[in-house]
What we know:
Layout: H1 4-12, H2 22-39, E1 43-50, H3 53-60, H4 62-77, E2 85-90, E3 93-99, H5 103-119, E4 122-123, E5 129-130, E6 134-141, H6 148-164, E7 169-172, E8 186-189
Parallel strand pairs: 6-7, 7-8
Antiparallel strand pairs: 1-3, 1-6, 2-3, 4-5
Helix pairs in contact: 3-4
Amino acid sequence: xxxxxxxxxxxxxxxxxxxxxxxxxxxxxxxxxxxxxxxxxxxxxxxxxxxxxxxxxxxxxxxxxxxxxxxxxxxxxxxxxxxxxxxxxxxxxxxxxxxxxxxxxxxxxxxxxxxxxxxxxxxxxxxxxxxxxxxxxxxxxxxxxxxxxxxxxxxxxxxxxxxxxxxxxxxxxxxxxxxxxxxxxxxxxx
Length: 190
């Protein structure tokens, strides 16, 4: 007989990356949206996709792909605040929930993650070292959407605009339509 703690972990944590699974990160985002509605607060989400991940699996195999996912996850976690949450949304996609963070500050978080990931060297057993890049889509509640579902759609659309614009970039909508000065990476503005 398993204890309840093990059951909760199995239901909420992705076994490969040891971060929250899609179901749980979605639930946390819904709870954050409800909290923000109640207290007139804000939060941002970030959809992240590892660029060209299929090539890693095709060239090196799925075991190496799994090691890359684990290293990538650690790289994200190293640049988050202790109360930010990350979950594996599917395959090589991740979702960040950034409580009480306006979109402009979310850009700073994304820039730290993007820069860190680009410098990250994922060492493999056979002395092979791999590097990856990622694309990002940022959306803010309630600025970009006032429901969790619409917020996800918004961030996902921005993620895929970034990928179509050349990958390794962040796509966001900024009211002023100015390049955010802290971000040194490639940013696509709408």
